[in-house]
Amino acid sequence: MSRAGRQQQPLPLCAEVQYPEELKDARKQYRQTFMKERPETFIADKYQNGDLYSTVTEMKDNFTQLEIELVQLRELVLTQLCSKDSTQTLQDQISKLKKEHESTRTLLLKGLQRDREMYKGELTALTEEVRELQQDREMCRREQAAVTEELQKRDRTVQNMREQLHSPYSHSPHHTTVKNIVLGQDPVTPHRSNR
Known about the structure:
By secondary structure, the protein is mostly helical. The chain is built from five helices and no strands.
C-alpha cells in the first residue's frame, strides 16, 4: 500500500498532523546544510560518496514498515475502543431488556392474579349452582317416587275395581255404583218398589 493510499483512508478517531509547507522546506534545507557543513557525520560521508541513495531507500523502507506498524497499532487501539463501546452498549441493552422483561413479567403476574380471582369467584358461583341443582334433582326424584307410588296405588285400585266388576257378586247395588264410576257413568241409585 502506498503512502498516498493510506492518506486517502484516514482512520476515524485518529487525526493526522499536517505540517505547513514552509516548515517542511525549512527542515529539508537544514538537513542538506547540515550534511554539507558537517562532513564528519555518517550521512554526510555517504552523501559525498554517493551512497546516500541506498541509505535513503533503506530509511524509506524502515519508515514504511514503521507506518504499517503504526496503522496496525491504531487499528488495534480503535478495535479495543470500539469493543469497549460495544461492551458498554451491550450492557446498556441487557439492562434495558432486563427492565422490560421485569415490567412485562410484573404486568403478566398482575393480569394472572386478577384472572385467578375472577375465575375463583366464578367457580364459587358455579359450585353453589351445582349444589342447588343437586338439591333440586333430589327433590324431583322424591316427588317422582311419590307420584309413581300414587300411580301404582291408583292402578291397583282400578285393577281391584275391574276384578270386582267381573266377579259373581256384581249385582249388588254397591257393586253397580262402582261399576258405573269405573265406566264413567253416573251412579244410578236402585229403585225400590213401594209395597
